[in-house]
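Q: What residues go here?
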């Protein structure tokens, strides 16, 4: 076991906001609405919600419980619950660490674009039109500069530790994010064309249902809840022993899913508002145009049609995106930093700078080989690595970790839990049902 004096979140609310901040990021506000728009609207929404409930939530409990039991970084925590197969746990921890760094390497590039689109309208308003145009252009120099503008604040927050860094900034940024969301949704829903997007988002067309849609929905559920890359395991290791893990996990999952749903209420109607204003969003064949860069093409075009008001609305929207991206990025960086401070006995400040530097170099490599690497890294890490690692974590929790040890850990925050329906269902569910469901989803194309 690790040192019991290890850093902790100072309150349950602080943990929930930090964990929700990790989960609520580009996966919700960029990924989920884009996936929904590309996969027929409401049918994707309902399959996604089903995946969160039947797969992501039970596995979120498993990751948080493994982390709190190990009271250490994911390599040690997974080793501690792997019984006589400790090498399996250590290997999975290292692979999860690589998954987190892989996601962060492309995440910082996209987040950098958000910074550029946030600042650009203000520069244009003050007469710096050339600088504004450069920030919205696509070039290696611009991508590299904006990536650095985002990566440095991420490093600085993680450098300050758990309570003074991650928890403090998550607790400040998350209420701002919620407020901005509510304002933006109310505004968009009253614009001409918004109701058409709302109908597509909420009324299902089952003709769009396909095996590929189900796989995408599962990947999206794992990506948006930060599962399969050890983030929730690390956060669980900083969680108080008195916390009720199933209840806390439910609150995090509900916050995350609620924000994803609200993001759809914002983006889907906004797309059709843009279409009403003359912006093309679908091809003649019905495919979504610019699906990977939806928020960087369709929405700025819509803001441009709104005159001066559009400048401030655009700034508020991209500020919201930057806040969401930052709360997720700090959780991804914390995974390798936690490993380095404990495995190499390094100071947090030293570890965060050299690890942040290596991830920055990886991001730069992607920037200079964008066409070949960006889409590949996104697909490998989010659609395959996360669900597969989530499956392996479920197998560790279900088959290698002794059931009595799991119960001992869980009842510390909920003494009556052993007598509840949750305990009668969850262990077997994670052990058998989750792996079977995930294998069926992956194998659907071959059935």
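A:
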């Amino acid at each position: 076991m690790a040192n019991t004096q290890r850093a902790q979140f100072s309150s349950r609310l602080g943990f929930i906001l930090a964990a929700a901040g990790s989960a609520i990021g580009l996966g919700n506000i960029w990924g989920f609405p884009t996936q929904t728009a590309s996969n027929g609207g409401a049918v994707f929404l309902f399959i996604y919600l089903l995946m969160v409930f039947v797969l992501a939530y039970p596995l979120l409990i498993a990751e948080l419980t493994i982390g709190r039991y190990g009271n250490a970084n994911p390599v040690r925590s997974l080793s501690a619950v792997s019984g006589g197969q400790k090498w399996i746990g250590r290997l999975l921890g290292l692979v999860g660490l690589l998954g987190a760094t892989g996601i962060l390497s492309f995440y910082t590039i996209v987040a950098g674009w958000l910074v550029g689109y946030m600042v650009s309208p203000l520069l244009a308003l003050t007469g710096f039109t050339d600088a504004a145009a450069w920030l919205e252009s696509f070039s290696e120099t611009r991508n590299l500069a904006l990536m650095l503008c985002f990566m440095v604040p991420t490093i600085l927050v993680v450098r300050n530790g758990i309570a003074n860094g991650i928890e403090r900034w998550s607790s400040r940024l998350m209420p701002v994010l919620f407020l901005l969301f509510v304002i933006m949704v109310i505004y968009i829903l009253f614009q001409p064309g918004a109701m058409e997007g709302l109908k597509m988002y909420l009324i299902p067309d089952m003709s769009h249902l396909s095996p590929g849609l189900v796989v995408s929905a599962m990947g999206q559920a794992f990506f948006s809840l930060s599962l399969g890359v050890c983030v929730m395991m690390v956060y669980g290791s900083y969680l108080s022993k008195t916390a009720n893990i199933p209840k806390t996990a439910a609150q995090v999952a509900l916050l995350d899913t609620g924000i994803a749903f609200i993001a759809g209420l914002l983006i889907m109607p906004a797309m059709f508002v843009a279409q009403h204003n003359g912006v093309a969003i679908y091809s003649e064949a019905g495919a979504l145009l610019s699906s990977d860069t939806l928020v960087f093409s369709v929405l700025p075009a819509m803001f441009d049609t709104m005159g001066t008001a559009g400048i401030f609305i655009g700034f508020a929207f991209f500020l919201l995106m930057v806040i969401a991206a930052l709360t997720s990025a700090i959780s991804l960086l914390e995974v390798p930093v936690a490993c380095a401070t404990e495995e190499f006995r390094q100071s947090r400040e030293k570890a965060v700078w050299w690890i942040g530097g290596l991830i920055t170099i990886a991001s730069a490599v992607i920037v200079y080989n964008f066409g070949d690497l960006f889409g590949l890294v996104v697909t490998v890490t989010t659609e395959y690595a996360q669900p597969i690692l989530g499956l392996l974590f479920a197998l560790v929790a279900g088959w290698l970790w002794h059931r009595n040890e799991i119960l001992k850990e869980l009842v510390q925050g909920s003494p009556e839990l052993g007598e509840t329906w949750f305990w009668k269902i969850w262990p077997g569910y994670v052990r058998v049902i989750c792996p079977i469901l995930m294998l069926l989803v992956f194998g659907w194309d071959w059935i």
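A: Context that may help when evaluating the design: The first helix runs from residue 12 to 23. The chain has 18 helices and no strands.
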